[in-house]
Design a protein that fits this description.
two-stranded antiparallel sheet; 148 residues; mainly alpha; globular
């Protein structure tokens, strides 16, 4: 998921305006989220993690295929205090991929490249000197085995 939202600025300043968003840089760069598991948990719990991946893939693909219904259900069941227009704006501010698209992006090295770009940003702008390249810590193999 790639997301940029202007809702915070919208609520703070009625005259605020967006200068740019991350979509201008996609697909060369992306802001991504993810999951992490410590090695001592990962090894003995691969089946549990595979169940999590299968559940996430089903939910993710439902949201991609049925976004209107999914956003309405989220608003009704979890965010009733948030106007539907704001939920829709937030959803539209992101790029969603199907679980099969993620499989392709993991397989072809795109996600590893995006992760390294995030690391490069922090090294250049936050003074971080020591780093680990994504190829050393990012292991999509369980996802690739689990998602059809």
């Amino acid at each position: 998921m790639i997301a940029v939202t202007s809702l915070s600025a919208h609520y703070c300043m009625t005259r605020a305006f967006k200068l740019a968003d991350a979509s201008a840089y996609y697909p060369q760069a992306a802001i991504i989220g993810g999951w992490a598991a410590a090695n001592d948990y990962y090894e003995p719990n691969k089946e549990t993690l595979a169940k999590l991946i299968r559940g996430w893939a089903e939910a993710n693909d439902y949201i991609v295929a049925n976004s209107k219904e999914a956003m309405e259900a989220l608003q009704k069941n979890h965010y009733s205090q948030t106007p539907m227009a704001d939920i829709n704006e937030s959803f539209q501010a992101q790029k969603m991929f199907t679980s099969r698209d993620w499989k392709r992006l993991y397989s072809d090295g795109t996600v590893t490249k995006w992760l390294d770009q995030s690391t490069d940003f922090f090294m250049a702008n936050a003074g971080i000197k020591d780093f680990t390249p994504a190829s050393k810590y990012f292991d999509p193999s369980l996802y690739l085995k689990t998602v059809a």
